[in-house]
Amino acid sequence: ASYGPNPICKGCLSCSKDNGCIRCQHKLFFFLRREGMRQYGECLHSCPSGYYGLRTPDMNRCSRCRIENCDSCFSRDFCTKCKTGFYSHRGRCFRGCPPGFAALEELMECVEGCEVGQWSEWGTCSRNNKTCGFKWGLETRTRQIVKKPAKDTIPCPTIAESRRCKMSMRHCPGGRRPAKTKDKKKKKKNLMERAQKQHSIFLATDKTSQ
Questions:
Q1: Nearest CA-CA partner of 75 in 67, 85, 86, 84
Q2: What is the residue extent of each domain of the chain?
Q3: What pLDDT is attached to residue 115?
Q4: Where is the segment annotated Disordered (predicted)?
Q5: Neighbours of 12 (CB within 10 A)
Q6: pLDDT of residue 3
Q7: Stretch 48-76: mean pLDDT, rounded?
């Protein structure tokens, strides 16, 4: 029987013109639908989004999930599927996964991510495998992977990083930089050539004046 456009007495054991289904058949769930100021009962094979089926000896009912942003739940405090844009994690729904967990986009779930240890101390400042002879070099620090991620597609954070550093010894002990030695020899040669040229000009001028 049908009473008006909204409540349909399908699967009801008892039905009211004003309130719709009052009791449902044994395998169906009683759901109290609200539309504005009006509410009426329906008997459903499965509960709608945001509700879960609660079976009791008296009558099976659809109860509301208490988890925020939950689309379907196993019980009132454990969500099995979150609304669009939210990730499921241990029965809750999140915009982003908690620290230590990574988002599995195809299932919209948070799974165990890649866990890394603490950073080591910064290493020795060096350049071209030398710790002297240059003004600037690079120093590096590393950390170990403590636990691999649940899936190979989940990337691990960087485990090594370097930064620019100033060397404590710019000049190597007991040695000279070849480039500077060459520069000194070249400057000395230029000075000698310039002095010889000026001396030749002076002699030529002196002969002319005589």
A1: 67
A2: 12-64, 70-112, 116-172+184-209
A3: 83
A4: 170-210
A5: 21
A6: 46
A7: 88
Sequence-distant (6+) residues with CB within 8 A of 64 are 50, 51, 76
CA distance 102 to 55: 35
Q: What residue ranges in 125-185 does DSSP mark as E strands?
A: 136-142, 145-147, 160-166
Instruction: Return the DSSP state at 138.
Output: E
Same fold: 12-64 with 70-112: yes
Q: What is the pLDDT of residue 50?
A: 85
State the pLDDT at residue 2: 43
The fold of the 70-112 domain, in CATH, is: 2.10.220
pLDDT tens readout for residues 77-119:
899 889 999 999 989 999 998 887 888 888 888 988 888 889 9
- Separation of first and last alpha carbons in the chain: 143
Is this model's pTM higher than 0.85 or not? no
Give CA–CA dist 160/5, Å, rounded.
Answer: 67
Which residue is it, tokens 């101390």?
121
Q: State residue 184 phi and psi, 5-degree precision.
A: -65, -45
Give the pair of three-digit tokens for residue 95: 């915009």
- Strands 51-54 and 29-35 turn out to be unpaired
CATH of domain 12-64: 2.10.220.10
Residue in 117, 113, 111 with CA at minimum distance from that of residue 146: 117
